[in-house]
């Protein structure tokens, strides 16, 4: 792969709206990605292997629980810092950002928000340091966009101490190597609860899903529960119902809205540099109007997405961001990134399909990003419901 020459576009001087702390956190993540992710990520994707060697680095830049309070091992940062870290990581690779998103927003967040003090003390510091890695099991083979229909369930073991968990989750990021899984399951009354399942519990297995053309540097798999005995003390006590997992998704979708900007910036920056250097018909291809149209539209869309994410971050810092606003940003920014990846690929001609450049990897990764955490269609329907009051899901 070519050396990482990334220079971040900031067409509207958005840096002026960030604090010195924001910029410091962002720049630390950016340097780490250049030094520790860029040199290895193409090979990891080609080999379809999550590079576990980067886990300590992710912890060191605050990617595991950026906004979780320091007393639990988190970094105690604001939401804009969280977004900027996700942007920089996804600039490197969406699969690496996935690992961080799941750990922070889908594993640490529910334990922090819905867990008991004992659960927080037991799990959060180890998750923040990367000693424990987590996964989040909501999707099932027959329940993707409609998680409320889930069939994974538990019943009382009758011994006063345990529950018995049965079911299966599919498409689970980090599952093949997770130490703990936050699993959403129905109790005997059909109410959804979060349960912390730990590796080693009998009847719990995590087979890997192979042959993916997307997010190849992220490990994806199943979570299978066959009469797994789980202590009742592992049930998250402080929130139940579908709103509990959906609340976690709000936090993860926010991170994706920022992360997608990173992937788009990398594609744009690569294509711009290439267009200035590649000579055809005696001129750099950047001098042709057709290529300028692509590049000009890319920087316009990136700038709009940056402003959308920043405003959402401000609202989230004030605890005023609605789920529907988060959906709009996730949907818009991922679509923006995937379109830019496709156009950028064309600017590189044949070179664009090789692993010498990051663009094709970003493009394939974004096919997952536009589907997970709520598909492109589902987020449109969330906006539709919000503005019309009419539910078009069912
Ligand atoms: P609905 O009746 O609308 O809602 C049920 C309850 O949930 C509440 N709620 C929310 N709460 C917090 N945040 C949100 N975003 C919420 N959306 C809804 C709602 O108020 C209600 O509460 P209550 O108290 O009245 O019961 O539910 P529905 O069954 O009609 O479904 C709505 C729908 C389709 C929007 C929702 O289910 C949905 O978002 N579907 C998409 C599923 C999804 O996003 N799955 C993601 C799986 S995790 C993943 O992909 C990780 S990838 C990670 C990575 O690698 O980065
Ligand atoms: P379906 O729900 O079957 O949707 C198929 C199509 O139908 C889509 O185009 C959808 O938009 C459309 N559709 C569905 N319902 C409607 C409707 N009401 N109106 C109009 N159109 C509709 N899940 C987890 O729980 N944890 C994870 O860590 C996780 N990681 C993932 C990693 C990867 C790489 C991938 C690909 C997925 C991951 N997922 C995870 C699952 C992901 O959230 C689901 O794939 C996603 O929610 C869509 O579900 P589905 O694939 O079952 O598609």
Automatic annotation (TrEMBL):
Residues 135-228 form the Acyl-CoA oxidase/dehydrogenase middle domain. Its cofactor is FAD. Its EC number is 1.3.8.6. It comes from the Bacteria. Residues 240-382 form the Acyl-CoA dehydrogenase/oxidase C-terminal domain. InterPro entries: Acyl-CoA_DH_CS, Acyl-CoA_Oxase/DH_mid-dom, Acyl-CoA_Oxase/DH_mid-dom_sf, AcylCo_DH-like_C, AcylCo_DH/oxidase_C, AcylCoA_DH/ox_N, AcylCoA_DH/ox_N_sf, AcylCoA_DH/oxidase_NM_dom_sf. Pathway: Amino-acid metabolism; lysine degradation; Amino-acid metabolism; tryptophan metabolism. Gene3D superfamilies: Acyl-CoA dehydrogenase/oxidase, N-terminal domain, Butyryl-CoA Dehydrogenase, subunit A, domain 2, Butyryl-CoA Dehydrogenase, subunit A, domain 3. Keywords: FAD, Flavoprotein, Oxidoreductase, Transit peptide. PROSITE patterns: ACYL_COA_DH_2. It catalyses: glutaryl-CoA + oxidized [electron-transfer flavoprotein] + 2 H(+) = (2E)-butenoyl-CoA + reduced [electron-transfer flavoprotein] + CO2. Residues 19-131 form the Acyl-CoA dehydrogenase/oxidase N-terminal domain. One of its GO terms (molecular function) is glutaryl-CoA dehydrogenase activity. GO terms for biological process: fatty acid beta-oxidation using acyl-CoA dehydrogenase; fatty-acyl-CoA biosynthetic process. Belongs to the acyl-CoA dehydrogenase family. This is glutaryl-CoA dehydrogenase (ETF). It comes from Nonlabens dokdonensis. The lineage of its organism: Bacteria, Pseudomonadati, Bacteroidota, Flavobacteriia, Flavobacteriales.
């Amino acid at each position: 792969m070519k050396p990482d020459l990334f220079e971040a576009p900031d067409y509207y001087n958005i840096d002026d709206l960030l604090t010195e702390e924001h910029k410091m956190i962002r720049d630390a993540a950016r340097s780490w990605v250049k030094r520790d992710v860029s040199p290895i990520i193409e090979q990891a994707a080609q080999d379809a292997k999550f590079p576990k060697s980067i886990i300590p680095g992710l912890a060191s830049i605050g990617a595991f629980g950026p906004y979780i309070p320091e007393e639990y091992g988190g970094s105690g940062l604001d939401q804009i810092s969280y977004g900027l870290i996700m942007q920089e990581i996804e600039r490197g690779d969406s699969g690496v950002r996935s690992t961080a998103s799941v750990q922070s927003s889908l594993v640490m967040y529910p334990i922090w928000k819905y867990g008991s003090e004992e659960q927080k003390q037991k799990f959060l510091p180890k998750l923040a340091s990367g000693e424990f890695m987590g996964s989040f099991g909501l999707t099932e083979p027959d329940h993707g966009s409609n998680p409320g229909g889930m069939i994974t369930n538990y019943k009382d073991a009758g011994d006063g101490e345990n529950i018995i968990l049965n079911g299966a989750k599919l498409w689970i990021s980090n599952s093949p190597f997770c130490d703990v899984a936050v699993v959403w399951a129905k109790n005997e009354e059909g109410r959804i609860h979060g349960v912390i399942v730990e590796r080693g519990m009998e009847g719990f297995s995590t087979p890997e899903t192979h042959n993916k053309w997307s997010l190849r540097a992220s490990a994806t798999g199943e979570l299978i529960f066959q009469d797994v005995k789980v202590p009742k003390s592992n049930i998250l006590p402080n929130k139940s119902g579908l709103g509990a997992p959906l609340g976690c998704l709000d936090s993860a979708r926010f991170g994706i809205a920022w992360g997608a900007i990173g992937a788009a910036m990398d594609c744009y920056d690569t294509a711009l540099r290439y267009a200035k250097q590649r000579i055809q018909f005696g001129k750099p291809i950047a001098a042709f109007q057709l290529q300028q149209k692509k590049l000009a539209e890319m920087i316009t869309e990136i700038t709009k997405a940056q402003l959308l994410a920043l405003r959402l971050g401000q609202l989230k810092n004030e605890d005023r961001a609605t789920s529907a606003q988060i959906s709009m940003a996730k949907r818009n920014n991922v679509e923006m990134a995937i379109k830019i990846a496709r156009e950028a690929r064309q600017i590189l001609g044949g070179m664009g399909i090789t692993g010498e450049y990051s663009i094709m990897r970003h493009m394939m990764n974004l096919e997952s990003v536009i589907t997970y955490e709520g598909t492109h269609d589902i987020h449109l329907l969330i906006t539709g419901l919000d503005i019309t009051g009419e539910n078009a899901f069912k």
